[in-house]
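#help-structures

NK: newbie question. if I give both the sequence and a SMILES, will the prediction place the ligand too? trying with zinc ion
OV: yes, paste both and it writes out the complex. here, I ran yours:
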Amino acid sequence: MTWKTIPSTFTLNYMIKKIFPLFLSGALFLGACQSNSKSLDASDSVSIDQSEEKAVQETTAAEEVTQQKSGKIASAAEILARPQVPILCYHQIRNWIASDGKVGKDYIVPTAEFRSQMKMLSDSGYHTILPDQLYNYLAYGAKLPSKPIMLTFDDTKLDQWTVAIPELKKYGFKGVFFIMTVSLGRPNYLSKAQVKEMSDAGHVIGSHTYDHQNVKKYQAADWVTQIEKPTKTLEEVTGKEIKYFAYPFGLWNKEAIPELKKRGFTSAFILAEKRDENNPLFTIRRIIASGYWNTKTLHNSIVKSF
Ligand SMILES: [Zn+2]
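OV: that's the protein plus ligand as structure tokens.
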């Protein structure tokens, strides 16, 4: 993986973003569009005084993967025509217990099985990508590594920290963790400190509402409770902008999309159903890696579903 983070500068970067948003959108991102690892060098900065120039250098040094801000975004038809990147959705990673129900087991991947799935992906030459890379690919046609795949983890379970993170690390993989903030710090769920550490290690944190309510049922105030406040909490925890959202249960409707856009999200993730013909970036498909699958089934599903 080429993405390395520089945690100590992120809080500063975040503040700079909030203080100089117009400046940043104009000057900073012009040079940050081609490569996932290239930083904008000082010679690309124009018409700014020295203190601002210093701030830009510090910001861009840390932002090795950013969304491309210049150029025209592809049309929905163009985005839909690009080959889809396989995206897996995990929930719990632990051995089944007697009280686990038939349906529940779909969402619980036994530990040894998860380990062999990660090994299979690595042995098969897959490279994990992160949402900024996916966005740049879909919106601007940016190049991806060979055999790209995205690994996502929903619902804030502690075993994502105890089992998944060390396993990802073995293979240089990075994941995307969609957090519901009501659970943070509860027994058997991730803590804020763990979420921060995951973010600092280069994994991406996304928003998954306050307490997993169905987006299709939101009234006006729910957008504040379920989306705005929890996302702000995650931004405070990570010191980074939160730009990605996963719909609880994968459920979405057309009305939700402008609401998410208004609140600064740039993409949102559904499950295996059809994407929206006008807003494919807000209906990016994932498949649930079922607890019943072995590595062969998983591989077949990856190939078949995307
Ligand atoms: Zn969920």
